[in-house]
Amino acid sequence: MKQGIKVTFLGTGTSVGVPVIGCPCEACQSTDSRDKRLRVSVLLQIDGQNIVIDSGPDFREQMLRANVQRLSAILLTHEHRDHIAGLDDIRPYKIWQEQDIPIYAHQRVQEALRKMFFYVFAAEEYPGAPKFDFHTIDLQAFTIHKTQIIPIEVIHGELPVLGFRFIHENGSDFTYITDAKFISDKEKEKIKGTKVLVINALQYDEHWSHFNIEQATALVQELQIKQAYFTHISHRMGPHAKANALLPANIQLAYDGLEIVVE
Fold first, then answer.
1. What's the predicted TM-score (pTM) here?
2. Residue 170, domain CATH
């Protein structure tokens, strides 16, 4: 029986989440659970492997909420705090699994982690500190278990960020991109043909480092994506129900806890 890639949206919010502290806007005051957005992250379950993309400050809560008992690997898109601040919370996985957790990251991102989590790399081992099993990635494809992973370079302001396309040997095909404002034609070619695309769409207004909803929609149409989900959503998008109702049939706003299977 063919099994696809199960994707769980662990977080779909911006760097400050939704609701925003102290904000009286309609989205932040909403009682709709879909308007409660933790920092952006996804869980991919493939052939018994649990792969998480990004480990922001809500990582612990996200792992508990999704009941992730074992962790196979973490892929990091870039070094901004809302994508890496929760890495210390991999400690229980090291204990239960009796091994260091593989972390796939660009060399530049690893250098940032060495500064933020300096105690992990101290000459004298800090008792109880996690251990990072670094795997250096760039733009070359790599494999985890039976899944080929193709890094996609996107630009976030002026910072290069990695998106990822996952192609399983059974034909499952899923692409995840966050924090993008520009994607070159060369990198767009890596996305074409994917069955499901997740892409950031921050808000309606123009933003200097993120696609807005008009730009993200145009990209989906340009690449002829059959099914797309928007993530990294700001409270400025307004309530989920209203914003989602305005999207084309092949595009939806993702929300925390949403589960899909890509076959």
1. 0.97
2. 3.60.15.10
